[in-house]
Amino acid sequence: MERLQKVLAHDGVASRRQSEKLIMSGRVKVNGSVVTELGTKVGVHDKILVDGVPITTEAPAYVMLYKPRGVISTSNDEKGRKTVVDLVENVSQRVYPVGRLDYDTSGLLLLTNDGELANRLTHPKYEVEKTYVARVTGIPTNDALRELRQGITVDEIKYAPAKAKIISTDEKKKIAIVSLTIHEGKNHQVKKMLNAIGCPVEKLKREEYGFLTLKGLQPGDARNLKPEEVKELRRLTGLA
User: Fold this and answer.
1) Which residue spans of the chain are classified as CATH 3.30.70.1560?
2) Residue 142 needs a FRET pair 20 to 30 A away by CA distance; which of 73, 165, 169, 212 works?
3) Whether this model's pTM surpasses 0.70
């Protein structure tokens, strides 16, 4: 048995705090009766409705995917393009991507049906680091890298300080391989930050998410997270 607000958050209905507000406002029914008591506990056989819409209580699922380029980071696409959910068809639960990677960006993407953990992983408050490796046009100067490390403003949007370093350069082709570690997840953030220092991105991959890496995976491969990995993610986001 679990507390009702935890079940709602886990199912992705809302954060736990917002789920508590839903309950207190009388918008949640359990087995046909309105429930406003926050201490109410429910089980897998209880029928839960939010605003008249039933939710399903599934076993938690946590999946790591090596997203290839040319795949949409959503559960469905109105244009019929392949989505990340299409690549994890062997998972019986309904899982959703945690955040997103651009269509032309590859790399590590998490999918889960644990709404509360997903919300925390994407919230900058918990500062879960993500490391990207980019091939860029141009070779960043030390001053440019310092800008990224100190926190750069692009189009009036302030980005938090990042860990930035050059992995390799090709002076003849005027390109570089750059590693950038951030804990935010703003729209097109890495591309905008590198473009702002005069080094537009040619190719981008997310190689690390917190302590997780792509080791052992090829593009399109997916695996279930190990129990200790889930436990560590929960610890990182204050859910342990």
Assistant:
1) 129-209
2) 212
3) yes
Lookup result for tokens 């080791």: 215
pLDDT tens column, 67-99: 999 999 988 888 889 999 999 988 888 888 999
What secondary structure letter does DSSP report for 72? Answer: B
Name the CATH architecture for the domain at 62-124+218-236. Answer: 2-Layer Sandwich (3.30)
pLDDT of residue 57: 67
Assigned CATH topology for domain 129-209: Alpha-Beta Plaits (3.30.70)
- Using the structure block, give the residue that is written with the tokens 């068809």: 89
- Start-end ranges of CATH 3.30.70.580 in the chain? 62-124+218-236
pLDDT at 26: 94
CB of 107 closer than 8 Å to CB of 76: no
Q: DSSP state, 83?
A: B
DSSP state of 138: S
Catalytic residue among 11, 46, 86, 102: 102
Q: Which of 214, 236, 212 is nearest to 128 (CA)?
A: 236
- Known catalytic membership, residue 170: no
State the maximum Cα–Cα separation within the chain, in Å, rounded to a whole number. Answer: 72
Mean pLDDT of the chain: 92
